[in-house]
């Protein structure tokens, strides 16, 4: 629970600043376990070499595909976002044709969801 609380606080701090972004990788079913393991190990091992820039990761399972996302503190630093992208390709052993999507406005939508969830939880 401590890790979740810590991560939510860091994400909330980023949302208030509205400068964060994330990298998204859409996956065929059956690949998410390996991708998630490699992503978490890369984060723990500080493979991205961007200091405190990485602030979270999510792996979401859907009906048709799975989605791995890596959240970063600032989306407007091109050198940092490119380093994150290149490191993702390397640590996840992605083929050259793999599409990594970069979203700089995604955290604003997550902010609305988090606030709504917190308000709903407070009503219970």
TrEMBL record:
Any stretches that span the bilayer, and where are they?
A: none
Per its UniProt record, what Gene3D superfamilies does this chain match?
A: RNA Cap, Translation Initiation Factor Eif4e
Which GO molecular function terms does the record list? RNA 7-methylguanosine cap binding; translation initiation factor activity
Q: Which InterPro entries match?
A: TIF_eIF4e-like, TIF_eIF_4E
Cellular-component GO terms for this entry: eukaryotic translation initiation factor 4F complex
Keywords linked to the UniProt accession = Initiation factor, Protein biosynthesis, RNA-binding
Q: SUPFAM superfamilies, from UniProt?
A: eIF4e-like (SSF55418)
Pfam families membership:
IF4E
Stated family? Belongs to the eukaryotic initiation factor 4E family.
Q: What is this protein called?
A: Uncharacterized protein
| Species of provenance | Wuchereria bancrofti
